[in-house]
Amino acid sequence: MRSLCPACGLGLEPYRADDAPAYFTIFVVGHIVVPLVLIVERYGNQPPLWFHALLWLPLSVLLALLLLPRFKGSVISLLWVYRVAAPKPSTSGIDVSS
């Protein structure tokens, strides 16, 4: 992720998307690919396993690569809209992690 927005110069470092974009991507790709697999398996005269691997693996990877940056941008924009930023590191020297 860039540290500054190229359009407006907003600092993006305090906004951390973490794992949310990956979860959303897996959820959407699964809801697109799995019904298609089941339809092909049911009405496609039960093609062999290599056909499924040749068709669905590249489609899943392509969809994930296309959707992941969009979900990450959406999560970052929602964090910005609701003013949710990562906590600033403590400078007092007191460890509050335990």
Low-confidence stretches: none
Portion of residues in beta strands equals under 5%
Question: Alpha-carbon distance between the termini?
Answer: 30 Å
H/E topology pattern: HH
Q: How many helix segments?
A: 2
Mean pLDDT, to the nearest integer, reads 88
How many extended strands? Answer: 0
Profile the largest sheet. Answer: none
General shape: elongated
Structural class: mainly alpha
Share of residues in helices: 55-70%
What is the radius of gyration computed over CA atoms, rounded to a whole number of angstroms?
20 Å
Task: Produce a short descriptive summary.
This is DUF983 domain-containing protein. With 98 residues, this protein is mainly alpha-helical. The protein has 2 helices and no strands.
What does this structure look like?
- The two termini are 30 Å apart.
- Helix 1 runs antiparallel to helix 2.
- Helices cover 58% and strands 0% of the residues.
- The protein is an all-alpha fold.
- The chain is elongated.
Question: Which helices and strands appear, and what pairs or packs with what?
Answer:
Elements: H1 20-43, H2 49-81
Helix pairs in contact: 1-2
Supply database-style keywords.
mainly alpha, elongated
